[in-house]
Design goal:
The complex is a heterodimer of chains A (616) and B (224). Chain A has 616 residues and is of the alpha/beta class. Chain A has 26 helices and eleven strands. Chain A has four domains: 161 residues, 3-Layer(aba) Sandwich (Rossmann fold), CATH 3.40.50; 55 residues, no CATH class; 210 residues, no CATH class; 120 residues, no CATH class. In chain A, α13 runs antiparallel to α20 and α17 runs antiparallel to α19. Chain A is elongated. The N and C termini of chain A lie far apart (72 Å). In chain B, the strands form two sheets. Chain B has a six-stranded antiparallel beta sheet with strand order 3-8-4-5-6-7. A two-stranded antiparallel ribbon of chain B has the order 1-2. Chain B is globular, with a radius of gyration of 20 Å. Helices cover 46% and strands 17% of the residues of chain B. Chain B is an alpha+beta fold. Classes of the chains: A alpha/beta (616), B alpha+beta (224). Chains A and B meet through α3, α9, α10, α14 and β11 of A and α7, β7 and α8 of B.
C-alpha cells in the first residue's frame, strides 16, 4: 500500500509525516524534477505501507514544479490513498485544494490538523458534519501534541473512499465540460485544466481555448477567475456549515513589531547578524575539534603505513577530501541549517521576505530571494539548491550569480586567516565591502541585461509558532544528507585528481604556465597559483595550501601585505568551488554554470590586478 | 488636451512598461515619442490632474488603473489594426503601423472586436492542416477582450482599510492570487502597508504579503 500526504504549505504535514514514519526517511527525486519527495515505510498489521510526503502546494492548477509534480502524481495514481492534511484555523482556504484534489477521484481521507490551535482561537469544527459534506472520513488531530495521529493509518487503510464533494461550476463552464467530455472524451479534471490553458493534448487545448475565450468574453472575466471563484464559494459554504465561532480575546499580535519598517528592519538585521555570528563561532570551534581528531586518528596512522608513493598519494587525497567534507559540513553547514530551520519553523522567514522585498527590488529580485542570499553566507551549495523558491528563470539567473559571489563560511575563513591575521582587521572588513559593492554592481547590470519577465512576490505569511526541536533537527538532518550526497563525490574526485596532478609533478609545470598571470599581473609569488588552484576545490584550502607551500604558517614573513591582500581577494572572488559548479549545473544547466565560473574568474583577476597596481 | 494625444501618451507608457517591465522616466518617455522634455512635462501635469498617471518624486511616470486600461486598450487596437492591415490586406509593416496610429483613436470597439475575430479565424485557417500546432497564446496577433475592470488599485488604499476585490489584472501573477483566495467579490483587510507600497492583506483568515507591482494589479472597491 502507498499513502501520500497532500496539503498546503505549513499545515503540519512534515510533522505528521515524521510522527508516522519515525526515522529512516528517504529523500527521492521525482524523475525530471528537482523537487524532493520524502518517503518512509511503516509496518501496519504485518503489511508494509509506504508513506510519501508531497510538497506543500496551494492549488493543482498552477505550473510550478511542485504543482506539476503533485498533479502528475495524482493522475498517474501514484498512491492508493491520499491523506489530505488541512489546517483547522484556515479551513476555508485549505478546502480549496481539497475540492480540487477530489476531482481526480482518488481514495481520500481528511486530517484536520492543529485542532488545539483552533480551540484556542474559539473555532469549533463539527467532524461528522464535515465528513458528510466531503464524503470522506475526517480525523480531528493535533500533531504538535500527537493527538489522534495514531488513528490516521487505520482509517486511511480501512475507510478511505473517493470524495463525494463536487464543485458546482458556473453553468457555462459546466456546459463546456460536458461538451468537451462528449466530443473528445477526456475526464473532467483534464478539461478544467485545458480550459485554463494547461495540458498536452493539442486537439483538446484548441477546442477548450476557443470555448474559454467565448466564456471570458461573456463574463468579462477570465475562465481561471471564474473557476477559482466557484471553488472558493463552495469552500466558504462548507466552512460556514461546519465551523462554529465563539468570540475570543485576541492575543497580542507580534506582527505589529515584526512587519513594520521600524522596529522590523533592525530586528531582521540583528537576527541575521546573530545567525551568522553564531554559525561562525560554533563552526570554527567544532571544525578545529573535528580536524584535529581526524588528523590524529586517521591521517597520521595512514601516513605511518608508508604505502607505495602512488597509493599513498591517492589514499591521502581521499582522506583529505573526507576531512574537508566533514570539517565544513558538520560544523558550519549543519549549524547553519539548524538556525535556518528555526527561522522557517517559527514562521519568521516569511516576515523577513516581506521586509526585504524593497531592497531586493532594487537589484531585480523579490523578497523571497532573501532566503538563498542568507543561506549563501553559510554555504553556496544549499543556497543554489534553494533557488527553486524563485519563480522565474530571470530571477533564478540573477540570484545564482549573486549567491556564488556572497562570501560563504569557507571564504570567511580565508579572509580571517590571511587578512585579519596578518594585515589588519579593518582591511579584512574592506574585503567584505569590496565584495558587496561588486555584488550590487553585478546585480544592477544583471537586472538590466537578463531577459525574462519580472514576477512580484506573493507569499503567505506563515503563522508564528514555537518550533519543535525534533522537527528542526529532522529537517536539518535531511538537508545535510542532501548536501553530503552532492558535495562528497565531487570533493573526493577532485581531491584525487589534484593528488595525482601533484604526484605526476605537473604542479611546477602549471605554476610556470600561469606565472605571467600570478607574478606579472597580480604580483604574487609563483607558488600562489597552486594555492589558488586548490582553492577551487575547497575555498579555505587556498589558505592552508599557501601556508604549506610558503613553508611557514607565519605568512607575514614571506609575503608583503599587498600580496596577502591581493591573494585573499582573488581567492574570495575567483571561481566558485567545484561543489558549487556541480550544483549550479544540476539546478540551472551548463550555460549558467559556465558563465558564472568565467565571470568570477575574470572578476577575481581584474580586481586583484587593480589592487596590486594601485597599492604597489 | 486632445483625446488622441492623451491616448498616444498612455499607449506609449503602457508599451514601454511592457517592454522594460518598469515604468519610464520623463526623459525616456520624451525620447520614445521624440518630443521635447518640457512639453512632455507639462502634458504629464495635465494627465496627473485627469487621474490617468502619477509621477513619483524620482520622475517615474506610472499609470493608474484607469490610465493602464486606456493604454492597454489603445495598444490592443493598434496591434489589431496593424495586424489586419499587414497580414490580411498585405500592406508593408511600417506603413501599416503608421496607418494604425491614426486609425486607433477613432475606430469603434465593435470594429476592433470583429477585426480581431476575423484575424483569429484567418490565422487559424492558415495554420490548419500544416500539422504544426500552435497554442492560442502564441498566435501572431493576440486579441484579448477580457479587461473591463474600472476599479481602483488596492495600492491606493491605506493600512487598516477594508475593501472588496473586483478584479485581478495581468495573467502571470493572477493564478497564485486566485489560489490564495484573492478572487473577485472577496473581502480583505489591509493589515500592513510599507512605504514602498508592499502590502500584507488578510484574506480568508490568512495573511498574504504582496509586492507593490502585484498590489497594483488588484482592483478593489471600498467596503460600503
Amino acid at each position: 500500500m502507498k499513502i501520500a500526504l497532500l496539503g498546503n504549505p505549513g499545515v503540519g504535514k512534515s510533522l505528521i509525516f515524521n510522527q508516522l514514519t519515525g526515522l529512516g526517511v528517504e529523500v527521492n527525486r521525482y524523475p525530471g524534477s528537482s523537487v524532493a519527495l520524502e518517503s518512509g515505510n511503516v509496518c501496519y498489521k504485518q503489511e508494509k505501507t509506504e508513506i510519501v510526503d508531497l510538497p506543500g502546494i496551494y492549488s493543482l492548477d498552477g505550473n510550478s514544479e511542485e504543482e506539476t509534480l503533485v498533479r502528475t502524481f495524482l493522475t498517474s495514481g501514484g498512491a492508493d490513498v491520499i491523506v489530505a492534511v488541512l489546517d483547522a484555523t484556515k479551513l476555508e482556504r485549505n478546502l480549496y485544494l481539497f475540492v480540487q484534489a477530489a476531482e481526480f477521484s482518488p481514495k481520500m481521507i481528511a486530517v484536520i490538523n492543529m485542532i488545539d490551535e483552533a480551540d484556542r482561537q474559539g473555532l469549533r469544527i463539527d467532524a461528522n458534519s464535515l465528513s458528510s459534506h466531503l464524503g470522506v472520513p475526517v480525523i480531528l488531530a493535533a500533531a504538535s501534541e500527537g493527538r489522534n495521529i495514531d488513528r490516521i493509518l487505520p482509517v486511511a487503510l480501512g475507510e478511505a473512499t473517493p470524495a463525494r464533494v463536487r464543485v458546482p461550476y458556473d453553468h457555462h463552464i459546466e456546459a463546456a465540460l460536458k461538451s468537451l467530455e462528449k466530443t473528445i472524451g477526456t475526464p473532467m479534471h483534464t478539461n478544467l485544466l485545458a480550459l485554463q490553458g494547461t495540458g498536452d493534448d493539442p486537439v483538446l487545448l484548441d477546442a477548450a481555448g476557443a470555448i474559454a475565450q467565448e466564456i471570458a468574453m461573456r463574463h468579462r472575466m477570465s475562465v481561471g477567475q471564474i473557476i477559482a471563484t466557484n471553488r472558493h464559494n463552495l469552500a466558504r459554504e462548507i466552512t460556514a456549515a461546519v465551523v462554529k465561532r465563539t468570540a475570543q480575546k485576541k492575543p497580542y499580535d507580534l506582527d505589529s513589531l515584526l512587519t513594520r519598517s521600524f522596529p522590523g528592519i533592525p530586528i531582521l538585521c540583528s537576527i541575521l547578524f546573530l545567525l551568522l555570528l553564531s554559525v561562525f563561532m560554533i563552526g570554527s570551534w567544532m571544525e578545529e575539534i573535528i580536524v584535529t581528531v581526524f588528523t590524529t586518528s586517521v591521517i597520521t596512522p595512514f601516513t605511518a603505513l608508508a604505502l607505495p608513493p602512488l597509493w599513498n598519494q591517492i589514499g591521502f587525497s581521499l582522506l583529505i577530501a573526507l576531512q574537508a567534507g566533514l570539517g565544513i559540513a558538520f560544523p558550519f553547514i549543519f549549524t547553519f541549517y539548524i538556525g535556518l530551520s528555526l527561522l522557517e519553523d517559527t514562521g519568521y522567514m516569511t516576515r523577513a521576505a516581506f521586509l526585504a522585498d524593497r531592497a531586493m527590488h532594487r537589484i531585480g529580485l523579490h523578497g523571497e530571494a532573501i532566503i538563498p542570499m542568507v543561506i549563501g553566507f553559510g554555504c553556496t551549495v544549499p543556497a543554489v539548491m534553494s533557488l527553486r523558491l524563485l519563480k522565474t528563470r530571470r530571477e533564478q539567473t540573477i540570484a545564482a550569480v549573486l549567491v556564488t559571489m556572497i562570501p560563504c563560511s569557507a571564504r570567511t575563513v580565508v579572509i580571517a586567516g590571511i587578512v585579519a591575521a596578518f594585515v589588519g582587521i579593518l582591511w579584512a572588513f574592506s574585503i567584505y565591502l569590496i565584495v558587496f559593492v561588486l555584488l550590487i554592481l553585478t546585480a544592477i547590470v544583471l537586472s538590466r541585461i537578463t531577459p525574462g519577465e519580472q514576477f512580484g512576490m506573493i507569499v503567505e505569511m506563515s503563522t508564528l509558532r514555537r518550533p519543535q526541536a525534533r522537527l528542526v533537527l529532522a529537517k536539518s538532518w535531511l538537508r545535510i544528507k542532501e548536501f553530503l550526497f552532492i558535495a562528497m563525490p565531487v570533493l573526493i574526485v577532485t581531491s584525487i585528481l589534484l593528488g595525482l596532478f601533484q604526484y605526476l609533478g605537473l604542479t611546477e609545470l602549471f605554476e610556470q604556465l600561469v606565472a605571467p598571470v600570478t607574478v606579472t599581473l597580480l604580483g604574487l609569488p609563483v607558488y600562489a597559483s597552486t594555492a589558488l588552484l586548490f582553492g577551487v576545490f575547497r575555498k579555505e584550502l587556498a589558505f592552508e595550501t599557501l601556508a604549506v607551500l610558503a613553508g611557514t604558517a607565519n605568512l607575514g614573513s614571506v609575503m608583503t601585505s599587498v600580496q596577502l591582500y591581493t591573494f585573499a581577494i582573488v581567492s574570495v572572488l575567483f571561481v566558485p568551488c567545484v561543489s558549487t559548479i556541480a550544483v549550479l549545473y544540476r539546478q540551472l544547466g551548463a550555460r549558467i554554470a559556465i558563465i558564472t565560473s568565467i565571470y568570477t574568474v575574470f572578476l577575481g583577476l581584474f580586481i586583484g590586478a587593480i589592487i596590486s597596481i594601485l597599492m604597489k | 488636451m486632445q483625446p488622441s494625444l492623451r491616448e498616444d501618451y498612455l499607449e506609449a507608457i503602457q508599451l514601454f512598461s511592457e517592454k522594460n517591465t518598469r515604468f519610464p522616466l520623463t526623459d525616456e518617455l520624451a525620447a520614445a515619442l521624440s518630443k521635447p522634455v518640457p512639453v512632455v512635462n507639462s502634458d504629464m501635469a495635465e494627465l496627473v490632474s485627469g487621474g490617468d498617471v502619477f509621477v513619483s518624486p524620482e520622475g517615474v511616470i506610472a499609470l493608474t488603473v484607469r490610465g493602464k486600461q486606456t493604454g492597454t486598450c489603445v495598444m490592443k487596437k493598434h496591434e489589431t489594426l496593424q495586424c489586419f492591415l499587414s497580414e490580411i490586406l498585405g500592406m508593408d509593416k511600417s506603413s501599416a503601423s503608421d496607418e494604425a496610429c491614426t486609425l486607433e483613436h477613432t475606430v469603434s470597439d465593435e470594429t476592433i472586436d470583429r477585426l480581431g475575430k476575423l484575424i483569429v479565424t484567418h490565422d487559424h485557417n492558415r495554420h490548419h492542416g500544416k500539422g504544426k500546432h500552435k497554442q492560442p497564446d502564441e498566435r501572431a496577433c493576440k486579441v484579448e477582450t477580457d479587461e473591463f475592470c474600472q476599479s481602483r488599485s488596492i495600492s491606493e488604499f491605506s493600512e487598516g482599510d477594508e475593501v472588496i476585490i473586483q478584479c485581478i489584472h495581468g495573467r502571470a501573477c493572477a493564478q497564485r492570487l486566485l489560489d490564495l483566495g484573492l478572487v473577485p467579490g472577496e473581502r480583505t483587510t489591509i493589515k500592513r502597508k510599507l512605504s514602498n507600497g508592499a502590502l500584507v492583506v488578510q484574506v480568508k483568515g490568512c495573511d498574504v504579503a504582496v509586492s507593490p507591482e502585484i498590489a497594483s494589479a488588484i482592483g478593489v472597491e471600498r467596503l460600503p
